[in-house]
Amino acid sequence: MKRIGVLLTSEPGGGAYQYTQTILDAVLALPRDNYSIVAAYSDRLWIDKLGDRVDRLELGNSRWNRALNRAWHMTHLPVAAWRRSAAHLDTNIRALIAERADLWVCPNHDRYAFRAPLPTLGTVHDLMHRYEPSFPEVSEDGEFARREFHFGETCRWANGVLVDSSLGKQQLRESYGIEEGRVFVLPFIPPRYIFEYTDASDARFESRYFVPRKFFFYPAQFYRHKNHRGLVEAISLMREQYPDVRLVLVGSKERNGFADVMSLVKEKGLEEHVLFMGYVPDADIPGFYKRARALVMPTFFGPTNIPPLEAFALGCPVATSRIYGIPDQLGDAALLFDPRSVNEIRDCLVRLWTDDALCAEFAERGREHSRRWGPEQFAARFREIVARLV
Fold first, then answer.
1. What is the pLDDT of residues 100-120, one digit of tens each?
2. What CATH number does the domain containing 234 carry?
């Protein structure tokens, strides 16, 4: 009997939380005649998701551990020295070691993937701080150095590292020299809330939101790399011929690109054409996909992304960026464009806005893509990876 631990350190809400939930589901699907499970959590909201046959470990946030962490960063001690002392000094690491797990799965870019003397499976979702450093959200205010340190040390110390794609694996090996046999490709799937949307959820959506009869949809935080600006420019061009075009945007208004996007909307006179919905709970997101003409995602980041997979599962056509690993991820199930070309984005929008048969075709292609790679296949691949490492 092997013992598998999973670290649940992400806070509710956001992509990291949803990915952690997906990994937790795969851990809980491991055959219990071969594996026992222990879940270490930092937020008690995780407890309800664990079930009965899981051992539980609550991680503390003591003043001592916080002070210890600050002291370690200020002294710039090497990770090797920290790993030697952590078992004696950090109460959380002592507790993790005491569980005697054969492997700890770290889905949330957890520092425990390298700072604790534990067998770990780390995660690196993307290296865009290296490949797209012009965007301030991955390069300014020390963010580049933080990411470089974290990913480099994860590659140095973790027993294995999860990536989203073959390109993600290639980029990780090029960047940090990690051995090929320690990098495992586990492609994304839609988060659980996509599959939990019901008729009752739909009725709740109708009571909460007013959306146009026909609209494009883009759920994304207003970071500059999300390229809302390019999408708004394309809507502006399209409006000249199609004045009924509408775009619905979902995401917090506190990110670094929101003011710029709002200013552009006013400059172009698009206040009636671009609707800002603000923050929307995850449980309500499927309602937008089910009503949208298409998801349009002009991002500059990869290697791959999750929103197109959400749209596929719900029968929403997709148009997105032709960059990095996205063409391999989506195949012929989506329209692809150069995110730097406003004209290409506009042309895709026009095709989807005006051609019902095309939308129906891409909706069905997306559903078929979703059937080929979903929770069952994800869990099976995860089980293979765990078996390799333990």
1. 999 999 999 888 899 889 999
2. 3.40.50.2000
